[in-house]
Amino acid sequence: MARLGITLEQVTTAADALVSEGQPPTIRAIRERLGHTGSPNTIHRHLCVWREARPMASATAAALSPALAGAIAAEIERAAAAARGEIEQRLVQAQQETTELASAGEALEAEREALIVQVAALTTERDTLTGKVAQQALALDTAQQQISSEQQAAETARIELATALVRAEQQQKTEAAQTAEIERLRALLEAAQKATISAEQQTAVLQARLEAVSERASRAEARIAQSEQDAHQAMQQHHEAREEAARLRGQLEAMQHTSPPAARGKSKNVTAKNSGPVQESLDVG
Predict the structure, then answer these.
(1) Which of 43, 94, 170, 238 lies deepest, with the highest CB count within 10 Å?
(2) What's the CA dihedral at 119, 123, 126, 131 to 10 degrees?
(3) DSSP per-residue string spanning 132-159
């Protein structure tokens, strides 16, 4: 009787437990968690189903207000998306090929187990026939024809046993070839994962550079705002100086109109002496 294989529920439970413990859910680790039982092909097929059912994390880029930072972020996202798309396509193709090989391996494994059962049955039958031959040897004179028939049946059983052994040997060779192909696909998968990690690292470096550029731009904007504020204050002070000069001129003219004639002469002299700085201030204004 063929042994029962492990179920999808057992593999998913073991994989979830390994992930919660911070360990990678590999075929070897899951098989050890299940008590060193289960076919690697079956575990691999169930593990592929488990991985496809898990949600994939989506990467989000931080929104930046400056136009230059937005352009840089868009270029980074485009490059990262292109790299991820190519790598994910390779991973999907490798997983599909591995799944097909695993299914074929399971079918061949089932056929091998069936042949083992047949070999065991033939061996038992052969032993039974051998015992019968030994017993009938004592009555050779009276059962010669029956012994000859049993010997022919035993020979047929031996031929079938040899055929089964040849099939089992061929099955082992096929399994060895499948194992080598699985190892090759694993190597391709590891290379794709390394490429994914490298792309993520490059994205992180570009993101750090973008943040540095954004910080420098913010500092430059702050300096520009301070300069504009200083200029505004200087203009306001200049305007106040002009108003003060105009006020003083008005007062001086009023004094000239209201003073006596003799005083006006003195006032004109004073005006001539004092109007120089005021006029210069007005001219500057």
Answers:
(1) 43
(2) -170
(3) HHHHHHTTTTT-HHHHHHHHHHHHHHHH
Average pLDDT, integer, range 25-40: 90
**Whether the Cβ atoms of residue 77 and residue 61 lie closer than 8 Å to each other:** yes
SS3 5: coil
Pairwise CA distance, residues 88 & 86, whole Å: 6
Cα(168)–Cα(207) distance, rounded to whole angstroms?
58
Residue 35: helix, strand or coil by DSSP? coil
Helices 40-53 and 8-20, packing angle to 10 deg: 70
* pLDDT tens-digit series, residues 99-135: 656 665 676 677 778 888 888 888 888 888 888 877 8
Q: What is the mean pLDDT of residues 251-279?
A: 61
Contact status, residue 117 vs residue 1, Cβ threshold 8 Å: yes
Query: Over the stretch 61-97, which tens digit does the pLDDT of each residue have?
Result: 444 567 776 677 677 777 667 666 656 665 665 575 4
Q: Which of 190, 186, 195 has the alpha carbon at shortest distance from 97?
A: 186
CA-nearest of 30, 82, 83, 58 to 192 is 83
- Whole-angstrom distance, CA of residue 89 vs CA of residue 44: 19
Contact of 282 with 245, CB cutoff 8 Å = yes
Closest CA to 122 of 157, 169, 152, 151: 157
Q: What does the block give as tokens for 276?
A: 């120089």
pLDDT (average), residues 15-19: 93
d(Cα 175, Cα 100) in Å, to the nearest integer? 14
